[in-house]
Amino acid sequence: MPRRPRVTLAGVPLHLIQRGNNRQACFFAEEDYRAYLGWLEEYARASACAIHAYVLMTNHVHLLLTPRASGGASELMKRLGQRYVQYVNRTTGRSGTLWEGRFRSCLTQEEGYVLSCYRYIELNPVRANMVRHPGEYPWSSYRANAQGELSTLLTPHRLYTALGNNAEARQAAYRELFRYQLDPGTVDEIRAATNGNFALGSSQFQAQVTAALGRRVTRGKSGRPQKQSESKSSGLFDGG
């Protein structure tokens, strides 16, 4: 069965996840995290992708980015993935694949969803019970976005920038968003859209993406549609 084409549009934010093969570890030492982030910055620039948020978990990676061209994210992840696998295989003496096939992703509506994706990504270590507060986890963008830690990797999304008139105000407003966990329904919505390669947003946004791409970007209805011939034979329609 052919793979569904990836849902991506130039200038539209994309949330993506890439997992280790069979959910096995893909980071083994602190140097691995640093190497990945260095190459992420290098290839994001080369592929014209603006990175807004990230988290590197033990066996998977989350990114929120905006590609300048529709194929930018795929180019970024291909080059980054290959470079990092070569590095891991060389330093650990292993061989073969490291990643679980293609990365999964969803186009993300800006209003109402981009900041939720920021929080979803940076709260991953908290949901995984690795830390009690996102600022305790060193391999995410939280310390830069919320606490002003210097980062040459990140490009703030315009909705993040709109949180305040200066850096201190933006960081304070951003920290306020983390006073509470994300609503479970929002978490499920982001997961479903990302795993299904769908569009994350309102029905209007999904319709706009469908029109732009010329194909469905939402989950299909379960079950077989009723055949017209079956309806007629049941006597529900009168020929007169």
Automatic annotation (TrEMBL):
Residue ranges of domain Transposase IS200-like in the record: 9-124
Bias-annotated ranges (Polar residues): 225-234
Location of the region described as Disordered in the Swiss-Prot/TrEMBL record: 216-240
GO BP field: DNA transposition
Annotated InterPro entries: Transposase_17, Transposase_17_sf
GO molecular function: DNA binding; transposase activity
PANTHER family reported in the protein's UniProt record: TRANSPOSASE IS200-LIKE DOMAIN-CONTAINING PROTEIN, TRANSPOSASE, Y1_TNP DOMAIN-CONTAINING
Name by which UniProt lists this protein: Predicted transposase
